[in-house]
Design goal:
Blueprint (H helix, E strand, L loop, with lengths): L3 E6 L3 H7 L7 E7 L9 E5 L10 H5 L3 E5 L7 H19 L6 E7 L7 E5 L10 H16 L3 E6 L1 E3 L4 H8 L14 E3 H12 L9 E4 L7 H12 L17 E4 L2 H5 L9 H18 L7
Helix pairs in contact: 1-6, 3-4, 5-7, 7-9
């Protein structure tokens, strides 16, 4: 059987996890990134500049069967988001030329939803079109879906599983959220993002929807997560004085019915399963390395 080619634009941690799941006998993996290095064995690396549409014409030459796009802002300003998402996607689409891919995923974000008070949302919910940062992401989604008729937008929640991550480090340092008001969070383990795409590429999923929320089954209050993490770390759970509602950042609870409708089974369906695995690796590492303090 002839090997298929997958091009991963913005190759990084998720790209590495995905390529690790693709049989080398079936897939030729090409990572496109700013610097053509730091890729695992078996992955070809191509240097591209997402600000330069000409450099992205390599996509048409590669003729990939599958395409994965993982973008990031050039900086945190509205202009940086527009450059990193909307403009970069325009260049990627142009770079494909007349070539049409069989499978394509764009890893977007659940931050596009406008809900701010903790209510439930799904893929049909209103988006924050008045927010310039969000609009840059939405423009990238629209360009992707319009140009690639096989494309699926994956709106991922908070990614974790790459080292301890900011939440676990914050809790370990004793920097806890106020006890009230409750603030909900939505997350997805990086292994599940990669495994979902690998299953889709293998034809094991029903991908009838073009926008899918990638979040686990447990959008819980951060206070609940922090209390559980404190217990696991052997630390007291002592949150600070309750904040006012006005001081609580926007939050929401995100439904994942479309994710389940694809037939995919989450490896880490809730924070306890996911962070349990993260803690196991972190503690094991701390026991091997002198000077690494969990607290």
């Amino acid at each position: 059987m002839q090997r298929k080619t997958i091009a991963i634009v913005g190759f990084g941690d998720l790209g590495e996890r995905l390529t690790g799941l693709l049989p080398p006998s079936n897939w030729r993996c090409v990572g496109l990134r700013r610097s053509a290095n730091a890729v695992p064995p078996g992955v070809e690396s191509v240097a591209v500049d997402l600000r330069d549409a000409d450099s992205l014409r390599v996509l048409e030459r590669l003729q990939p069967d599958a395409l994965v796009i993982a973008l990031s802002p050039a900086d945190r300003s509205p202009a940086g988001y527009h450059e990193g998402f909307a403009e970069a996607m325009t260049g990627i689409v142009a770079g494909l030329g007349k070539h049409r891919v069989r499978h394509a995923f764009f890893i977007s974000s659940t931050r596009v939803y406008s809900e701010a008070s903790g209510d439930w949302v799904d893929e049909s919910s209103a988006t924050a079109d008045q927010n310039s940062h969000v609009m840059a992401i939405l423009l990238a989604e629209q360009s992707f879906l319009k140009a690639i008729d096989t494309g699926v937008v994956l709106r991922a929640g908070g990614l974790y599983g790459h080292g301890p991550g900011p939440l676990l480090k914050r809790v370990a340092a004793g920097n806890l959220s106020p006890a009230e008001p409750l603030r909900y969070g939505n997350r997805i383990h990086r292994d599940d993002v990669a495994a979902f795409m690998a299953a889709g590429l293998a034809g094991k999923l029903t991908l009838d929807d073009r926008i899918i929320n990638l979040v686990d089954d447990a959008p819980v209050a951060l206070q609940e997560m922090e209390a559980w993490l404190c217990t696991q770390l052997g630390l007291p759970y002592a949150p600070v004085t309750p904040a006012t509602a006005a001081d609580t950042p926007a939050h929401k609870r995100i439904g994942n019915a479309r994710l389940h409708a694809t037939g995919y089974t989450l490896q880490y369906p809730d924070y306890q399963a996911g962070y349990g695995a993260v803690l196991h690796r972190w503690i094991a590492h701390s026991e091997r390395e002198d000077g690494l303090d969990l607290h």
